[in-house]
């Protein structure tokens, strides 16, 4: 909501702003001196003043006014402050590189102070921003955010129901957590063994049985006659919690008491490497000297955590790295840093740090032999040669983008990673990346139910995604043709005999022709 005093002073109403409580008298004047506004300065974020006035709390753009009074901040020396807490893997392994790259892009330098705090300095050496970082666990990040002690929480999992409820109770009038999140990078949960272990693949049910203690000898899962040694990250770490939620819980299993816990992914990888009969669950970005084992479905589909599979969420244990934001308005330079994390320059640093970035990549159908082979093996009475020929006829000359869209269980709401992907795809269209081309939104389903029904469902979901991309800010839809196609269960990515396999198969792919 915006009010106008005269024709010069624009005042926007917001729920709240971050920053120190100045609570000092100030007077804001329009640049031509015709309008004045008095009040107590609540905060200043580098772009807006927040005043307590006789009209109530008001927010005023700094561009159109001058400030007089003892509470006025020095605009030339204002320091943007941000408090970051959460996953140490990100806080220590990725965030500093992104902050340094952001500083360089704005002609600044970065220094480190005790705390740690990363200070971005102007060319004259004066500080422009200070990011105070508290490395810890995902639990720590959410707790700090909910307590108002952090502006940004770094998380390796989505918030629990208890955390969502606590957020709603603390700020019922503010946007929910799911509307205050960005995907910073991508990672994945992978089973790892020693290079000396002969195991070549494991299914998710086998992994659940191993880590619940139901299987104690490798011979029970096709390996040597030797006892299994289990390794897992510490309970408070987000990846450990994600494993319990996504692998053990669906199997109605609980973690074995015989698991050796590790405070870092690096320590886990080293311990597993030293023991030929050990198995661990860790981050794809921290496999180190250990060997990652592909996931194998009961029907024989192998799934590796390749870069493309993680980007497309084809790998079932993809683990996005989230930044959850406080409901208050962050300082301008902090918001500019958040915008920078979505640029191609930032994505290069994401990849250099060992994570999977979200840059769009293209793969022709001709180079997707594994998935074509899987489709042929899975073909049955309801998916005949004609159905596969339709897929090849439509997509044969096109390239698959790494963007793949999936929905939350039981509905037509895109999941968090997919919502971020919609925005990135719309931005690429606006940049002209696909001018004069055709984007095909190809919907696929699992095999649960009649094939004809699944074909209609996949087409409907493809249309939902196409419309979401258009609504995300594509100003000129004529620059690229966008069409929806539904192929039902004709091109499975995983076995349909498990919940996770069916979830992987329910998707909308994006192809460019």
Automatic annotation (TrEMBL):
Q: Which Pfam families match?
A: OmpA, PBP_like_2
Record-annotated OmpA-like domain positions:
394-513
Keyword Membrane assigned to the entry: answer is yes
List cellular component terms (GO).
membrane
Fetch the PROSITE patterns from UniProt: OMPA_2 (PS51123), PROKAR_LIPOPROTEIN (PS51257)
Say which domain of life the source belongs to: Bacteria
**Signal peptide segment:** 1-23
**What's in the keyword line of the UniProt record?**
Membrane, Signal
The identity of this protein, by name, is Substrate-binding domain-containing protein
Q: What is the lineage of its organism?
A: Bacteria, Pseudomonadati, Pseudomonadota, Alphaproteobacteria, Rhodobacterales
């Amino acid at each position: 909501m915006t009010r106008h005093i005269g024709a010069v002073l624009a005042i926007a109403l917001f729920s709240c702003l971050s920053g120190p409580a100045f609570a000092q008298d100030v007077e804001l004047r329009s640049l031509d001196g015709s309008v004045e506004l008095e009040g107590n300065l609540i905060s200043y974020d580098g772009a807006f003043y927040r005043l307590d006035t006789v009209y109530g709390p008001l927010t005023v753009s700094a561009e159109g006014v001058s400030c007089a009074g003892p509470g006025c901040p020095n605009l030339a020396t204002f320091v943007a402050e941000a408090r970051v807490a959460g996953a140490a893997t990100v806080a220590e392994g990725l965030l500093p590189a992104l902050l340094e790259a952001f500083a360089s892009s704005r002609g600044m330098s970065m220094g480190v102070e005790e705390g740690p705090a990363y200070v971005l300095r102007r060319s004259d050496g004066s500080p422009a921003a200070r990011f105070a970082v508290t490395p810890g666990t995902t639990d720590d990040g959410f707790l700090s955010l909910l307590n108002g002690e952090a502006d940004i929480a770094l998380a390796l999992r989505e918030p629990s129901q208890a955390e969502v409820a606590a957020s709603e109770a603390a700020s019922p009038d503010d946007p929910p957590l799911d509307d205050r999140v960005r995907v910073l990078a991508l990672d994945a949960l992978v089973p790892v063994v020693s290079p000396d272990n002969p195991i070549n693949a494991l299914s998710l049910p086998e992994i659940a049985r191993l880590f619940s203690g139901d299987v104690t000898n490798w011979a029970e899962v096709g390996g040597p006659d030797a006892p299994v040694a289990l390794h897992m990250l510490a309970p408070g770490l987000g990846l450990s919690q994600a494993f319990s939620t996504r692998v053990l819980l669906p199997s109605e299993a609980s973690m074995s008491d015989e698991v050796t816990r590790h405070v870092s992914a690096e320590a886990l990888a080293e311990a597993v490497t030293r023991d030929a009969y050990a198995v661990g669950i860790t981050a794809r970005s921290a496999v180190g000297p250990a060997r990652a084992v592909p996931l194998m479905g009961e029907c024989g589909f192998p799934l590796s955590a390749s870069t493309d599979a993680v980007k497309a969420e084809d790998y079932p244990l993809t683990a996005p790295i989230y930044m959850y934001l406080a409901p208050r308005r962050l300082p301008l330079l902090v918001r500019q840093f958040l915008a920078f994390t979505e640029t191609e320059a930032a994505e290069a640093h994401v990849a250099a740090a060992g994570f999977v970035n979200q840059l769009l990549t293209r793969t022709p159908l001709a180079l997707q032999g594994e998935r074509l082979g899987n489709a042929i093996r899975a073909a049955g009475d309801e998916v005949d040669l004609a159905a596969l020929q339709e897929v090849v006829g439509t997509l044969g000359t096109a390239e698959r983008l790494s963007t793949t869209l999936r929905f939350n269980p039981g509905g037509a709401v895109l999941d968090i990673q997919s919502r971020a992907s919609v925005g990135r795809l719309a931005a690429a269209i606006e940049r002209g990346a696909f001018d004069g081309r055709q984007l095909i939104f190809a919907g696929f389903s699992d095999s649960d139910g009649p094939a004809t029904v699944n074909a209609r469902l996949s087409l409907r979901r493809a249309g939902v995604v196409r419309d979401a991309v258009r609504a995300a800010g594509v100003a000129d839809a004529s620059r690229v043709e966008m069409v929806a196609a539904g192929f039902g269960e004709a091109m499975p990515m995983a076995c349909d005999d498990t919940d996770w396999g069916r979830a992987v198969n329910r998707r909308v792919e994006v192809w460019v022709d």
